Amino acid sequence: MLNHISTTSKTSNACGRNSLLLAVLSCVACSAFGAGTPAGTSIDNHVEVSYQIGSDPSAVYIERAAHSFTVSELIRSNVSSLTPQGIGTSTPASNAVLSFQLTNTGNGHEPFMLTTIDGLADQFTPDVTGIWVETNGQPGWQPEDTLYRPSDGGVPLAADQSEVIYVVGNIPANLADEAKSDVSLVSTAATQGAAGQMIGGSLSGLGDGGIEAVIAQNNARHHDASHFTVSTVKLDVKKTIASIKDPYGSELFMPGSEVTYKIRLVASGKGTAKNLVIDDAVPASMHYKNHTLTLNGKALSDSADSDIGRYDSDRKIAYFSPGTIVAPATYEYTLTYIID
Amino acid sequence: MKTVNQAIILSAALTFSALFLPAQAAQSTVKITSEVHELIEVLDEQGKPQQKIIAADEITPGDHILFTTRFINQGDKASDNVMITNPIPKHTRYLEGSAKGEHFTITFSVDGNVWADAKTLKIRQKDGKYRAATAADYTHIRWKYNRALKPSEKKSISFETTLL
User: Fold this and answer.
1) What CATH number should be reported for the domain whose range is A3-22+232-339?
2) Do A3-22+232-339 and A74-230 share a fold?
3) Which of A173, A208, A247, B60 has the highest CB neighbour number within 10 Å of its CB?
4) Class for the domain spanning A74-230
5) Is A165 helix (H, G, I), strand (E, B) or coil?
6) What are phi and psi of A280, to 5 degrees?
């Protein structure tokens, strides 16, 4: 599980508090799987033979033949977790969300039924309250998205079309730190009889427009999994301005002023937070002052080496990567930017 | 006058017919048929993969298609310079090395006009330079029979594609 915190520096504001961002949710643009030639397309073959009889070169004969067939519908889907590294959650918690992308990788129009498999044996079982389809245009799940209902006959998708799907659930109370639950989203083609077919099976007349439909996956099904992992560690981040030094020895904001920020990370509770990374992007109208990264007063190098500090001059982002921390613990990082 | 005019008209009609009489006024003697099948891979009793030809009634993207042309000389004279031309069907891609025909010279084209064997065929790029053509560039295949097709002789040629 990745623990990732992003902070931003602003020229005039004194501080910025950022809540823990336990995973990066990226809504992937519809990826082109290449469903191929559309179902129902007629493939036409035309062949011509020319020949002569005797030695007269002007007596050329031509015969032609043709043969056509119709491309059948391939029924196939792909479920892909958008958070393969899992989601951290507290215990208890409500509306914990796992995100997936559902794609019709067949070559015809098909609705897909959705179900979940929640928690393996020896894992906790979340209370999945709903499967949702992203429809309101805002990244991430909101109650304004569309609740999936099996009675609607499945999520209809054209060939190559994708939808983002959210599995939303509540996490039980009193779970141990690092307790885990694997949750799979399962997609099954809704065409009658598809779920009972093995790979290569066919459904006569049940493809688009009454053509043959061919099943590409056993039980016309595909799934992918992500997981909830309980973390009893609470991370709190505060960012403040530690000092300002202008070119004239005062503490005014002006071009050339050096602004030193302090990022205070407090890990409370009990347990371990792993793979922790804090990144701070250089704000507009400022630039990073080299060799100013510190941890608890101790200098860190700007280059990627064995210490936890690094400044990426291409991306203009400073990174503090403490990795694993054991609560309770407090860390103070500082870095300096200069106003352009 | 009427008779003369009729004669002139008749003569003109005959001339007209003669000018535009198709070369194949004599009955064509070579008959051809086109067949399409799907090629699938199955495991034999020893577990080795084998190709099997089945009906082309469930073809979906990615499937292998076998196109076969059969022809027979139904005349009483040999047919010379027998040449078969097959545009590669739209939505399919020729499978390299799959064109077959015993005693045929097989050539390919990327535009239907210039023909060459697979090793020498070139295609012009957008920058005006030429590069070696690949199977994905081919638009046509041509088989030229290296012998005369005798009366009653049957032959077949074939090629394979993938449905895109």
Assistant:
1) 2.60.40.1180
2) yes
3) B60
4) mainly beta
5) strand
6) -135, 115
Q: Are A241 and A268 in contact (CB under 8 A)?
A: no
Is the CB of B102 inside 8 Å of chain A's CB atoms? no
Q: H/E element holding B15?
A: helix B2-20
For residue A43, the chain B residues in CB contact (below 8 A) are: 36, 59, 65, 89-92, 163
| Nearest residue in A to B80, CA atom | A52
Q: Position of tokens 């690094």?
A: A310
Chain A interface disruption, residue of B58, B106, B115, B162, most A CBs within 10 A: B58
CA-closest candidate to residue A23, choices A87, A73, A79, A70? A87
Question: Model confidence over A220-248: pLDDT tens digits?
Answer: 999 999 999 998 888 888 999 999 999 99
Q: Comparing C-alpha atoms, which of A147, A223, A221 is closest to residue A185?
A: A223
Nearest to A318 by CA among A286, A283, A281: A281
On whether the CB atoms of residues A85 and A97 are closer than 8 A, the answer is no
- From edge to edge, which strands make up the β-sheet containing A180-189? A87-89, A221-230, A180-189, A110-118, A155-157
Strands A258-281 and A3-8: parallel
Q: What is the per-residue pLDDT for A3? A: 53
Q: Are A230 and A238 in contact (CB under 8 A)?
A: no
Q: What are the tens digits of pLDDT across the range A89-104?
A: 989 999 999 999 999 9
User: What domains lie within chain B, and their CATH numbers?
Assistant: 25-163 (2.60.40)
Q: Is B29 on the interface with A (CB under 8 A)?
A: yes
For residue B76, report the phi and psi dihedrals to the nearest 5 degrees.
Answer: -105, 10
Decide if B60 and A71 are in contact by the 8 Å CB cutoff.
Answer: yes
**Whole-number pLDDT of residue A39:** 96
Task: Please choose, from the candidates A94, A67, A99, the residue with its C-alpha nearest in 3D space to the C-alpha of residue A84.
Answer: A99
Closest residue in B to A58 (Cα) is B23
The contacts of residue A17 (CB under 8 Å, 6+ apart) are A237, A238, A239
With residue A298 as reference, give the H or E element that holds it: strand A298-299
pLDDT tier, A5 (very low <50, low <70, confident <90, very high otherwise): low
Which among B24, B29, B57 is the nearest to A62, CB-wise? Answer: B24
Q: Give ipTM to 2 decimals.
A: 0.80
Lowest model confidence (mean pLDDT) among A118-122, A150-154, A202-206, A297-301 = A118-122
Domain boundaries, chain A: 3-22+232-339, 74-230
Residue B6 CB neighbour total at 10 angstroms? 10
Question: Residue A77: what are its φ and ψ, rounded to 5°?
Answer: -135, 165
- Which residues make beta-bridge pairs with B36? B67
Distance (Å) of CA A281 to CA A164, A295, A334: 29, 18, 13
Cross-chain Cβ contact A53/B80 below 8 Å: yes
Enter the pTM of the model: 0.70
Lowest mean pLDDT among A278-287, B115-124, B135-144: A278-287
Q: B6 in helix, strand or coil?
A: helix
